[in-house]
Design brief:
There is one protein chain. The protein is globular. By secondary structure, it is of the alpha/beta class. The chain starts with 12 loop residues before the first helix and ends in a 48-residue tail after the last helix. Helix 2 (about 160-175) links the parallel strand 4 and strand 5 (about 185-190). Helices cover about 30% and strands about 10% of the residues. The chain has a domain at about 125-265: 3-Layer(aba) Sandwich (Collagenase (Catalytic Domain)).
């Protein structure tokens, strides 16, 4: 007779607990092994963060480049005996390049242009008498005729005649000035006969002397009449809107423009958009597309001219 087998009894609870306990112990014993890599990674992150914070708090080596970058413009138009005598008008705003001292030969003189005087402090009138700068200068220019000149400053305006004379000499000696053609030279003298006079004066005195030749300078502009190159004190100290940041170059324009009239040059117009304005252009009335310029010749000795104006 077939016997039915009884199913095997389930394992005792003790044995099962041993088996389950072994598996549990194995699972628990594996967890600590996973903790060490985590701690190591955390340590690396903490150290890296500390180094990054340290690097960010330390100053960098080397200087910081803060250099910035006007070609300068011509100043107010002068008047000349026999000219139009028009009062100056506002022209368009120019954007001079910042290469002072290169294109326009800027050099510092005894006046700090960064500390321009208050316009209200500039005397508008004076006694009409002048002090002449002492001494004499070397001849500058080519082998052509030599023109002598004196430099005079109106009494009581607080400006040194020798300082003005030194600046005028520098301007007339520049290689881009009127001597570039080799036909004329200049020499400053302090006495005796001279070919012309450069006279720095108050607006009222300029108006008076220029007015004797029928010119109306309106208290604002310079002129050349007879042998006098008359320079308005206000223009000498404050320049114009185009020269607000470069008074030294504007002074070169004054001298070159007015001496140019004395040499027989008339007013000229802009030769074309983007080209340098002639020194004989009345730039206070607008640049008309030209670039600013204060010299009659360029660095290669070529004349900077424009169409003649009536």
């Amino acid at each position: 007779m077939n016997e039915r087998r009884r199913p095997s009894p389930p394992p005792s609870s003790a044995a099962g607990r041993r088996r389950r306990g072994g598996r549990s112990r194995r699972r628990r014993s594996a967890r600590p092994r996973l903790l060490w890599p985590g701690l190591a990674a955390g340590t690396v992150l903490v150290l890296a963060g500390g180094l990054a914070l340290r690097g960010a708090s330390e100053p960098s080596d080397g200087p910081t480049d803060t250099a910035g970058a006007s070609s300068v413009t011509e100043g107010p138009e002068s008047h000349r005996a026999g000219g139009t005598g028009d009062a100056p008008t506002d022209g368009p705003t120019a954007s001079p390049a910042k290469e002072k001292g290169k294109e326009n030969g800027k050099e510092k003189d005894g006046t700090d242009e960064d500390e321009k005087p208050d316009p209200g402090s500039i005397p508008s009138s004076g006694p009409g008498t002048f002090a002449t700068a002492d001494g004499s200068g070397d001849r500058v220019g080519g082998s052509g005729r030599t023109l002598t000149y004196v430099v005079q400053v109106e009494d009581g305006i607080g400006i040194s005649a020798p300082d003005v004379a030194a600046e005028v000499e520098r301007i007339l000696a520049d290689e881009r000035g009127w001597t570039a053609d080799g036909k004329v030279g200049f020499r400053r003298v302090s006495g005796g006969a001279s070919d012309f006079r450069v006279r720095l004066a108050t607006a009222a005195t300029v108006d008076d002397i220029c007015g004797q030749y029928g010119l109306d300078t309106g208290g604002e502009v310079n002129c050349n009449v007879g042998q006098d190159v008359m320079v308005n004190l206000k223009r000498w100290l404050l320049a114009t809107q185009y020269y607000a940041d470069d008074v030294t170059s504007y002074r070169a324009l004054i001298i070159n423009h007015e001496v140019g009239h004395f040499l027989g040059h008339g007013h000229e117009g802009c030769p074309g958009a983007g080209r340098p304005a002639p020194v004989m252009m009345q730039q206070i009335k607008g640049l008309h597309g030209c670039r600013t310029n204060v010299w009659p010749y360029d660095a290669d000795g070529r004349p900077i001219t424009g169409p003649a104006l009536g």
